[in-house]
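re: that chain from earlier
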Amino acid sequence: MPIFESDDISINYQITGAGPRVLFFNGSGATLQGSELLIRSLSKECEVLAHDQRGLGLTSVPEGPYTMAQYAADAAALLDHVGWKTCSVIGISFGGMVAQEFAVTFPARVERLALLCTSTGGAGGSSYPLHELGALSAEERATKMPTLSDTRFTPEWLASHPADAQMMNMRAEQAAKTKAADVIRGERLQLAARADHDVANRLHMISCPTFVAAGKFDGIAPPVNSEAIVQRISDATLKVYEGGHMFLAQDPTAIREIRPFLSTGIRPGGQ
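^ sequence. v structure.
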């Protein structure tokens, strides 16, 4: 994958697919490698520019602290590097926070905006403070994570829903893997920046068509937070899907409706 050098950072990125241009922002701790299937799915209808955000994956880990403005500026510099003046933008979870920061900072560059399982921060409500999980024991984190991911995922639910249990076991195994010191540092710097996210009073600056998607049982970014986003953007609509924070993997209609919005602007219901 190509590397882009910009100021204090080396950014690992890739461009896949063909069609309308889309800038993809990933979630907390997520990398290009771990998001390969989702990026491939989006690229069936779009040309997708995705990158490891600062401190993650194969992108360098500059000295902190980091700010949400830096994450947005990194993406703007990357667009300049690849020669994209405008594009559609999609952000998932933390990536949705960066996408909001990008859209209020560079509104003329955003053709369409898709915000998934995310929050405005501030007056519009914040996502669960994931940085606080670091103070818990491994056992406490393992107990808490299922119902954060999906509020239905009690021990009793998982015992009677093997597919959901398998999904959570896979996530737990991934989280338990030993990480290099730089990986841990980058993830902690990202979570610290996330804690300061607040665009609630600036979302009125976004005028492009916006599709907001939430999971009905999301314990990290509950649907009420998505409602707050829609209330603050003039041309925004909301769709709530079956599932939690991982509704993209739980409700197959989600990706089938998000892709056409990014490629054509058509929202569910033909809006």
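The longest helix spans residues 68-82.
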